[in-house]
Amino acid sequence: MSQLFLPTERQPPADAEALSHKLMVRAGLVRQLGSGLWTWLPAGWRVHQRVVQIVREEIDAIGGQELLMPVLQPAELWKRSGRYDAIGDELFRLQDRRGADMVLAMTNEEAVTYHAAQVVRSYRDLPFILYHFQIKERDEPRPRAGVLRTREFIMKDSYSFDRDEDGLAASYDRHREAYARIYDRCGLDWYEIQSDVGMMGGTKAHEYMAPCPAGEDDVVLGTNGYAANLEIATADPQPAAPLPAAITGTFETPGHTTIEAVAGGLGIPAGNLLKAFPVVTEKRGMVVVVVRGDHRVGETKLANALGEPFRPAQEDELPGPAGFLGPQGLDGVEVLYDEAIAPGRYVVGANMPGHHTVFDYEGGDTADIRLAELGDTIGGAAVRIEPAIEVGNIFQLGTRYSEPLGLTYSDDGGKEHPVVMGCYGIGPARIAAAAVEQFADERGIAWPKALAPFDIEIVALGKPGSQEQEAAARVYEELKAVGFDVLLDDRGAGPGEKFADAELLGAPLRLTIGKRSLDAGAAEAQIRRGQVDVEGGIPLAEAAEAVQKLWPTIP
């Protein structure tokens, strides 16, 4: 440790909110270079690369072949796929010295499809899986939570190439099985959920989530095994109570421009109201979207229902007064109702300033556009909604990229078909951060064995050159010789500082060797997870053998 670049800190960064952000900086694993730009220091890089090796082994096991594609790519490929214009400011765009348009890739579907198109000719060339670990660039508008949301990061991307949908389904299932093994080997609590295909395109997608308070995604969980990202989850709403018969006609509601104000003024629950959300799309123009007053519009679900992106309407575009817009009587304006709205009487904006009215909803064009809420049910059982970190995602791309980029094959009759593709991503940094979040305690990190930067930390008490230090060095060499990754704290620091740093760094097993150890012939031993002391310690004369026996019992 006297030679290790490990700048531990007693206090977390002032702007840190996520536990992993605080502890990974304090433990000397990472350091910030700029907004959303992080350096992995030696101990942190050991963690990152342990994740990488687990992922590599499992993707190799399903037939993956590793390669490496550039971060800097010709924009022409992205223009051919349509993503150059479809993706917003998150995509780094630039020009080289010759004025050619380039991008810094945030993913590699275009590049891998281009390479495959140069090679694949016949059905005999399929199927296969290619993958790489590569830096990704994303001009994230709000980097946060340390290494969880950054502008530069490393991901494993694998891509499957098959003849047809059945082949894709088989490749997809192999990746699902490999991902399950990866997360289990990493020691994470995790679950697989249904997700939106988003900018990737395709027909089907799943995400892998590690539950923890710092998670930036909300996951809806049902007792029947249902699990989906909140942005696409579907559940049965609690029914709205009937609107009291005494509330009827049109009435003044001066200054009441919010659901809360109107409901409070009338003394009724928010579910007795409907709220109008006017949006504008390129193809459909103005659309007034209507949900119950106690529900929220899901932007992803709405975009999927509309079949195109949308933006909120500006005030000068509204078909009625802001704050008092209702769905009734909007001639020439498309109205889309959420399917959770049951027929009945509701309070709505009267389309005149300072007034609301009672609207008898009998039906209309509907779609599932609301976000699930606490109190919703699936199969009669209440759902749970909890935060989680996304640690991986998989997509059935189909022919989304093979068609525009000319990746085809000839079948045994000479007929040409587009290759059917899938893509599969994992973020090693997110796995590392999720492990910190899930297993830290008030003293620091408690790594799963598979991810720890060091298996064992030996805390050598006494001054440099002392008998305690010499005994610790001997045990250090013995443990290294049998294959353990060991960190020896040989510094001249005091016991308090050494113990604090050891607890912060979180090696699964800590051995302490001091004068008492020499007298007893045994090192004190503590398992980091739960800070469990090992009865009798580890005999100094047989340290390697004793640790090898203990190791399988350590979480």
Features:
single chain, 555 residues, alpha+beta, BirA Bifunctional Protein, domain 2, YbaK protein, Rossmann fold, 3 domains, 9-stranded mixed β-sheet, 6-stranded mixed β-sheet, 13 helices, 32 strands, 25% helix, globular
Topology (elements, then pairings):
Elements: H1 19-26, E1 30-34, E2 37-40, H2 42-61, E3 64-66, E4 72-74, H3 75-81, H4 83-86, E5 92-95, E6 101-104, H5 109-119, E7 128-137, E8 152-162, H6 165-185, E9 191-194, E10 204-211, E11 217-221, E12 227-229, E13 250-252, H7 259-266, E14 274-281, E15 285-292, H8 299-306, E16 311-312, E17 334-338, E18 344-349, E19 355-361, E20 366-367, E21 377-378, E22 381-382, E23 384-398, E24 408-410, E25 416-418, E26 420-426, H9 428-439, E27 456-460, H10 467-481, E28 486-489, H11 495-505, E29 509-513, H12 515-520, E30 522-527, E31 532-533, E32 538-539, H13 543-550
Parallel strand pairs: 3-7, 15-17, 17-20, 27-28, 27-29
Antiparallel strand pairs: 1-2, 4-6, 5-6, 7-8, 8-26, 9-10, 10-23, 11-12, 11-23, 13-19, 14-15, 14-16, 18-19, 21-22, 23-26, 24-25, 29-30, 30-31, 30-32
Tell me, what is the CATH class of the largest domain? Alpha Beta
Name the average pLDDT.
93
Q: How would you sum up the global shape?
A: globular
What CATH architecture of the largest domain do you see?
Answer: 2-Layer Sandwich
Structural class call reads alpha+beta
Provide the CATH topology of the largest domain. BirA Bifunctional Protein, domain 2
Rounded Rg: 29 Å
Tell me the fraction of residues in β-strands, as a range: 25-35%
Number of strands: 32
The level of helicity is: 25-40%
* Sheet having the most strands: 9 strands, mixed
What's the tally of helices?
Answer: 13
CATH homologous superfamily name of the largest domain?
Bira Bifunctional Protein, Domain 2
When the domains are counted, the total is 3
Span of the ends, CA to CA: 24 Å
Low-confidence region ranges: none
